[in-house]
Amino acid sequence: MVSTAAAHLLFFLISVNLIPTNPLAEEQMFQAVDGDAGVALGKSRKRVLPVPHTQEPDPISEAYGYCNTPNHTEQAWEGHSPADYKLLSVQVMIRHGDRYPLYSIPKTKRPAIDCSLSINRKPSHPLMTSFISHMGQGGRGHWESTLGSVPRLPNHSACEMGELTQTGVVQHLHNGQVLHQAYKHHNLLPFDWSPHQIWVETTGKSRTLQSGLSFLYGFLPNFDWTKLTVHHQWSTLFCGSTCDCPARNKYLEEEQRRQYRLRVADTELERTYADMARTLGLLTRQLRAANPIDSLLCHLCHGLSFPCVPTGETGTGGCLTMAQFAVIRRQQLDDEVERRRVGLYHKYAILAMYPYLNRTASKMERVAKSSEAGRRSRAGGEEVFTLSSAHDVTMAPLLSALGLEEAKFPRFAARVVFELWRSPPTTQGLPKKRTSKGDKSKAKDGEVFIRVLYNGEDVTFHTSFCRSHDRHASQPLCPLKNFLSFVRRDMFSVVNATSYQEACYKRPG
Ligand SMILES: *[C@@H]1O[C@H](CO)[C@@H](O)[C@H](O)[C@H]1NC(C)=O
Ligand SMILES: *[C@@H]1O[C@H](CO)[C@@H](O)[C@H](O)[C@H]1NC(C)=O
Ligand SMILES: *[C@@H]1O[C@H](CO)[C@@H](O)[C@H](O)[C@H]1NC(C)=O
Ligand SMILES: *[C@@H]1O[C@H](CO)[C@@H](O)[C@H](O)[C@H]1NC(C)=O
Question: Catalytic site residue 346?
Answer without folding.
Answer: no
